[in-house]
């Protein structure tokens, strides 16, 4: 795995895969967008606090996840990688392999499971 930016050839292969992943994430009810540094960001709006919950809004980071497109070594084929926060703000993201970029359906299914909010319509009283 490389933390280097994508080469020009890799970036041209990545862009269509990123758009395909966004389409798959949107189809699963997530908010998603392509980011310029070789990443796709997804958020589950069901994980947001109620509009009148000021404490929840102040404390909730929400349910979001970023995946990065980077080459996997030694073949250098492009993969989606989970981007997890490092131990401190100064540390780089820790990357964990998810799947090849060509597998947008598989990636979207797994991302949607990670961002799932089960029982969102269940009463808590």
Q: How would you describe this structure to a colleague?
A:
With 125 residues, the chain is an alpha+beta fold. Helix content is 30%, strand content 29%. The chain is built from three helices and five strands, in the order αββαβββα. The chain has helices at 8-27, 54-59, 104-114; strands spanning 31-35, 39-44, 63-72, 77-84, 94-100. The protein has a five-stranded antiparallel sheet with strand order 1-2-3-4-5, covered by helices on one side. α1 crosses α3. The model has no long low-confidence stretch (mean pLDDT 85).
What are the key terms here?
125 residues, alpha+beta, five-stranded antiparallel sheet, 3 helices, 5 strands, 29% strand, globular
Strand percentage:
25-35%
Sketch the topology as an H/E string, one letter per element.
Answer: HEEHEEEH
The main sheet comes to: 5 strands, antiparallel
Query: What radius of gyration results from the CA coordinates?
Result: 16 Å
The stretches of 5 or more residues where confidence is low (pLDDT under 50) are none
User: Which class do the helix and strand fractions yield?
Assistant: alpha+beta
Strand order of the largest sheet: 1-2-3-4-5
Shape: globular
| Helicity level | 25-40%
Write down how many β-strands occur, each being a DSSP E stretch of 2 or more residues.
5
Average of the residue pLDDT scores: 85
């Amino acid at each position: 795995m490389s933390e280097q930016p994508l080469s020009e050839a890799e970036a041209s292969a990545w862009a269509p895969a990123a758009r395909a992943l966004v389409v798959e994430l949107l189809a699963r009810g997530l908010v998603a967008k392509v980011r310029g540094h070789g990443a796709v960001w997804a958020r589950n709006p069901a994980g947001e606090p109620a509009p009148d919950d000021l404490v929840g809004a102040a404390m909730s980071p929400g349910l979001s996840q970023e995946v990065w497109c980077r080459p996997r070594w030694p073949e250098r084929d492009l993969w989606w990688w989970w981007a997890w926060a490092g131990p401190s703000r100064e540390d780089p993201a820790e990357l964990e392999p998810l799947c090849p970029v060509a597998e947008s359906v598989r990636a979207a299914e797994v991302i949607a499971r990670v961002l799932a909010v089960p029982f969102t319509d269940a009463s808590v009283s």
